[in-house]
Write a structure and sequence with these properties.
Layout: E1 12-15, H1 19-31, E2 37-40, E3 47-48, H2 63-66, E4 67-69, H3 71-78, E5 81-83, E6 86-92, E7 97-103, E8 111-117, E9 120-123, E10 128-129, H4 146-156, E11 162-166, H5 170-181, E12 185-190, H6 202-214, E13 218-221, E14 223-230, E15 240-246, H7 254-260, E16 265-269, E17 271-274, E18 278-279, H8 283-288, E19 292-293, E20 297-299, E21 312-314, E22 319-321, E23 324-325, H9 332-344, E24 358-360, E25 366-371, E26 378-384, E27 388-394, E28 400-407
Parallel strand pairs: 1-2, 1-9, 2-5, 9-21, 11-12, 11-17, 12-13, 20-22
Antiparallel strand pairs: 3-4, 6-7, 7-8, 10-18, 14-15, 15-16, 19-20, 22-23, 24-25, 25-28, 26-27, 27-28
Helix pairs in contact: 1-9
Length: 414
Amino acid sequence: MSAELPSTSKGIVIIGAGLAGWHVIDAIRAKDKDIPITLITADSGDRYHKPMLTMAISQKKSAADLVRATGVDAAKAAQVTLLANTQVTDIDAAAQTVQLISALRSDPVYTNYATISYDKLVLAMGAHPIFPKSLPEELVWHVNHIERFGQLQEKLAAGSQHVAIIGAGMVGTEIAEDLLKAGHQVTLIDLNDAPLSQMLPTKATARIAAAVQSQGINFLGGYQVSGVIRNSEGSNDGKLQVSYEPIVPTTDSEDSKQAGATQSETLVVDHVIASTGLTVDGKLPTAAGVDFNRRTGIEVDAPTLRTTTDNIYAIGDCMSINGVACRYVAPLRAQAATIADDILGLEHSGYDHKPPMIRLKNKAISVMVTGVPQANGNWQVTSESDDELIMDLLDDNNEVSATVTIKTPPTVTA
């Protein structure tokens, strides 16, 4: 059998080398230079800023350009044991161990297995893109990781191409503009009538839709993608055929049923990108016995970020507080600092969770959101003009729980 994985004494084990995992390492090392830390990641562990992925194509930045430090160099600087290209297959919370499988060579048969112990375990494993059955993973891209981003960028380097983006949330809308600025033809498809419709009210999203379309993006709102196939069978170079159909409200009446029997339309493109939401892989949370929801993430105690299982913490995209997913970069440093203090037994005031300001990275329109927005709510206009809209979301006590500010640059007409 192959050589054993590097051994580690009991200490802190972190699963996931994204921004969240590395922030925890930074926070711990700021307080303790010697405590053993093992970082386990399915990839190389390179440090990069994920939000840049939705802007990098038009800026002609390669995956290598986005890497701030390789995993090896970052681990050496932080005095961390890095287990790269390694999968965690099981967590035994009672024994406080994790089981690993590591592919150390290109030959998939050559693998290593190991069990390592921990005093404290941090789950920073992120979330994974949702691929509905109509979007086959082998034909559809996602831009949620630097490796896939790099592969897509190589394909797009051949020249101007037609890209369909499925899902007009924050990420999908940002990618659409980035690809357009890079010289590509873009079709943005969403179930709703306008981008960001799951977050904001119709009055706000109508302005966003107008701005997106003014850029030259073909926005198909109110459509559901029913399938993606390759036009040229047996050829990886064949274009893709996207089938989509309008979403028609149905009732029990016969007239409505007939109205809903619409014919599918098709669109031929070079690439399809899925931006259809995120889900948390349930294998490790289930093994560890922590409470979680696949859509929102692992439940934690807000002041400490402890999970419902002793000695296990969670942070980043895989975590939720009070049933709300925490998938923004801004709070990560404060979350990591709390975990570091709690793990090291240092006195701390507890993590005070405040929803960060959300900004849509789009040049055609400025969208800023504070609080916890939801489309279906009591939104009230506080200011409205041709170039600005401000709306507040009022809760049951008539207090403001979210605010959206939309400004249209003078060069863009809504």
